[in-house]
Amino acid sequence: MLNVGNEKVSLCSGVSRRGFLTVGATALAGLNLPNLMKLQADDAIDGTRARIKNCITIFLVGSPGHLDTWDMKPDAPSEVRGKYRPIRTNVNGVQICEHFPLMARMMDKVSLIRSLHHRTGATHENGQRWMMTGHDFNADSIKPCMGSVISRTFGQRSELPANVILPGPIGNTGAGNLHGQTAGQLGSAHEPFFLGADPASANFRVADLEVPTGMSGSRLDARRELLGQLDQLQRRTESRTTNMHDSSYDRAFRLLTSQRAKEAFDLNLETARMRDRYGRNTLGQSCLMARRMIEAGVRFVTVNHFDTVFGQTCWDMHADGGGLNNTYFDYERHLCPQFDWAFTALLEDLEQRGMLQDTVIAVLSEFGRTPRLNGRGGRDHYPQAWTNFLAGGNIRGGQVIGSTDRIGSRPHDNPIEPPQILASIYHGMGINLDNVTMPGPGDRPVRLVEAMPIPQLF
Amino acid sequence: MEQRFEGRPEATVRLEGRRLTRTDVTNDWGLRLQWEIRRNGQVIATVNARPDQAYEHADTAPGEYSVVLQMWHYINYAKNPQGEFTQSRFINVSNVVTYRI
After folding, report:
1. Residue ranges, chain B, pLDDT below 70
2. Which residues of B touch A338 (CB under 8 A)?
3. What is the number of structural domains in chain A?
């Protein structure tokens, strides 16, 4: 259990043996400077050519229907084109859904990729694994998420971990727990740091990062000493991976006692106007927190827009009349406006602070939705075609990459697969994909992804 | 993690002739924001109020018009068999202004 926010979070890696320490060290990535220097010396990373220094991923759990959002087909039959009308954007010839009026004014910063597809089954988890890691995998060979690869490659830049997920991990989406949001074989030192609390909650407090009430500095020091003794004892018997846990404990204490870290998590340091501009909701405040994390030195932040597809408004628009009953009403009143407000706030804010050139925002999802409306007016899972997009980070905005056929059922030109998105981000960050590897089965080095970057992005 | 929405949204609407102007919304939940326009008490239009802070309704049929700014209030996911929400609803977040044509 990690007790960093207001809610306890279970970690896949499991650190309960150290449950007495209320800050979870496993979530903190290693400083890793020697690794970075070695990679630079080996020409595996070229920082001077890096166009991207930071990444914020907004993951739309449940997946928007591409025909109802960013790949509209107004001339298609009504059962295909759906309910909404397209609107013009500030880029000639590019139209998006009427419920993204603010994004339409910033399309010159956005690169829409309309020909995404993957070839595995239409479960949420398959799509999550593809988009988060660039791989399909099973429990025997868990692949690391992008943030963990970045953490391992570049290391930690400040007291804060390199890889953060807000507000919490993806939970139940129907078919198992392999969501692709862990460090996999990279080890616990590169596990994402989960905030585990809702920054839109009125009682959200940074106090959880502070020394627990009643614990004096000397008592904390005593615990650190005791922990050190336990670590020494266990190093003799445990694996290399467990030792990576141990190597992070000092950093956990640094986080616990760092004023800078406390301030980074404190949204009350923002003006009320700024908080309103992002939206006083879980997504908006998580996006604002993401900007604060990047400012404070975090390299990779993932914002999960929802943690489940069951029993609550989310993008999973089956309209099934039961527990998966998201409909057009959810889209037009809640989801599209909420995303439009938060996403454009983040773009504007990063730009005004001079951070947008260094920071890429990747808006990702698991798949598209069926070209034809189902019998209840919803759309079901459809990995054969969908649209995601990138903005900032010196990528070329104001363009559409790829297209789908006249009913959005297949890529028509320039088909793109999820690993190409990851390859593009890694490449943009200066990683030489031919030289940087990660440990595979039996510690054999394997490529980060089996794909090339999308050249049109740069 | 169920979503949370902080505070209660509020804005002020001013009327000059038929032209409506709104302030920024404080405690903005970031959900659908719309002008609700009524003529003689009947809703005749709901128009997205996000893109611009000013709006003038084109309808000039005679009658008494009242306009208020509304925002979607997500309470929970409960819906009826037609897929319409049963508890979540639009709420007024501004003063009501009226004019007569």
Report:
1. 1-2
2. 30-31
3. 1
